[in-house]
Amino acid sequence: MKTFEFRHATTVEDAIASGNAPGARYLAGGTNLLDLMKGGVEQPEALVDLRRLALTTIAPTAEGGAFIEAGVTNSAIANHPLIRAQYPVVSHAILSGATTQLRNMATAGGNLLQRTRCPYFMQTAFSSCNKRVPGSGCAARHGFHREHAVFGASDACVAVHPSDMAVALAILDAVVHVQGPDGRRAIPIDGFFALPGTTPDVDNTLRDGELILGIELPPSDLADHSWYLKVRDRHSYAFALVSVAAGLRVVDGVIASAGLALGGVAAKPWRLYEAERILVGRPPGEEAFHAAAARAMDGAEPLPQNAFKIDLGRHSVVRALHMAAAVRGDDA
Ligand code: SF4
Known about the structure:
Elements: E1 5-8, H1 12-19, E2 24-27, H2 33-38, E3 46-49, E4 58-60, E5 66-69, H3 74-79, H4 81-86, H5 88-95, H6 100-105, H7 108-113, H8 119-122, H9 165-171, E6 175-180, E7 183-188, E8 211-217, E9 225-231, E10 242-251, E11 254-263, E12 270-271, H10 273-279, H11 286-296, H12 308-326
Parallel strand pairs: 1-3, 2-3
Antiparallel strand pairs: 4-5, 5-8, 6-7, 6-8, 9-10, 10-11, 11-12
Helix pairs in contact: 5-9, 10-11, 11-12
Bound molecules: iron/sulfur cluster.
Iron/sulfur cluster is lined by residues 116, 118, 120-121, 129-131, 138-140, 148, 157-159, 200.
């Protein structure tokens, strides 16, 4: 492994001053970054350790939502009473991912910044990967792409984002709060991840040196009926082939509002706005759920090995909506 400098940051400002240097990377739980460094995929000049920063609380906001600081572990988020009560889909999504040991180390900020698990990206033995080595080509397009994107891909890259939590955050209209050399700003989750286009090496819209401070969850009316369905090749410790975050607010037997997003199909959580609109005003049930599912995969552009995701996506949407309608709050 290449040698690198290691710096402990003691304040946010101190971290940003170090993190803004060329070749520097922030280190939190390290569950993804250290693996990539061991394999030579990531080769930072310096690691800026964030673990001494006090970014480890979850608190209610004045607006009635919640603020999850960036250093809170995935386990702490999933098991927090406020998250379980008001945002059970977040808890459910996190618990469907990784293992207990990894969830105990991985953090909220790191969850958003984890990198694709495309095998050609993860292994330096493969020479063509535009995300790892810009301009080198995309081995997946004409190689193994069964798990890859059906939405939002480009000639340069067809990778998917691996986060489960982010899919749940999408239907909640979460906001990512960051601070950088030019001050603080808030990024809606829908604008946080970058589609590959011609620059697949860029995963998100963070600017140089920006540090994630936390994730704001606005008040939600989807808590009573929500579900996270993850379809994968084995029941644990596997990434989604397709996942669905679904939330419904039902008033007097009619869907008053809905949230629906897919994971495992794009380089970002894929929000299904049109399917959400179809659900509103209908009674929850077969007719409404199939009508939404029929539109869910509109615009998909599968590759030869992942065309199965079209049918799988539709069926998963129906299943997730049924589960969301059947549960109440934290029953999941
Ligand atoms: Fe690399 Fe993206 Fe192609 Fe995978 S899909 S080989 S990450 S460029």
